[in-house]
Amino acid sequence: MRQGSSCWRRPQLLANRTMEASYGRAYAHPEKDGASTWMATGPAYVPGAPQIGNPGVLPMAPDEPGETLLVSGTVRSTSGKPLPGAVIDVWQTTADGRYAGLTPEQAGPLDGLDVVDFDLPKYHLRGKIVTDAEGRYEYRTVVPGVEAAAVPGSLLDDLLLMLGRANSRARHIHAHITHDDHHMLTHQIHFDGDPLIDAVSEGAIARDLIHKTELHEDPSTWEARGLTGPYRTLTCDYTLRPIGFDEVKDPYHLEGFWKK
Ligand SMILES: [Fe+2]
Predict the structure, then answer these.
(1) Taking the alpha carbons of 165, 145, 54, 124 in that order, is the dihedral positive or negative?
(2) pLDDT digits over 57-101, tens only?
């Protein structure tokens, strides 16, 4: 098989998914030490997103549609110690539920879902934030949209309808969080009050992934932030699990792995 052909990529996609799932083992049983809940990466990750400031703004248009959202928090170890220098690699959809940056080949598993906008810049709403000396971070973005999970009229769509489940995913923001001495965490922020949270087809969403937002409508608060309209804030702290003395660090570098 020639590398790059669809014959080659199908087993490779399966291998990637299987190896990706193995990352989750490092975050099994979060109840034992308060580690954050691990979620799968999914097919929309694109390696190589630019580093933004801290506080920073995800790459987007000056008049990006959607509600302005400020996400902030602290990255800590399970010991409670803040982690300076942790990297949060964020990716999300636009307000209309579409990802940027995927090539048609990478978008193959999403075929027919209309969740990719091929006209947007590659790293639109994708960026890396490095935590400060206290382990803190903050970035500005927009509230993501609803992402389709089944092709309209497909067998899966009919099945979900029969089961009374949603044919789209709850709003979410993806992130990989890495730090030298800790296992990589893969995470998704979900939004409290999103009616899809209790209807998604992929299984129950862990409560610690669901975050409240606060709406700020007082114009004086916009001005203090340098904004021109209402905005929401959301706090998301991450807790990473240290790599034990007898454990092997990830056998491959994440970005190199995902380029395959
Ligand atoms: Fe997603």
Answers:
(1) positive
(2) 999 999 999 999 999 999 999 999 999 999 999 999 999 999 999
Domains of the chain: 6-259 (2.60.130.10)
Report the range of poorest mean pLDDT among 12-26, 162-176, 190-204: 12-26
Average model confidence (pLDDT) across the chain = 86
Compute the distance from residue 147 Cα to the ligand 1 centre, in Å: 7
Torsion, Cα 115 18 30 205, to 10 degrees, reads 30
Distance 98 CA to ligand 1 centre (A): 9
What is the 135 CA–ligand 1 centroid distance (Å)?
A: 26
Cα separation, 69 vs 173, in Å, equals 11
Tell me, in angstroms, the distance from the centre of ligand 1 to residue 91's CA.
Answer: 8
Separation of 115 CA from ligand 1 center, angstroms?
9
pLDDT classification of 5: cutoffs 50, 70, 90: very low
CA distance 56 to 90: 12
Distance 223 CA to ligand 1 centre (A): 32
**191 C-alpha to ligand 1 centroid (Å):** 13
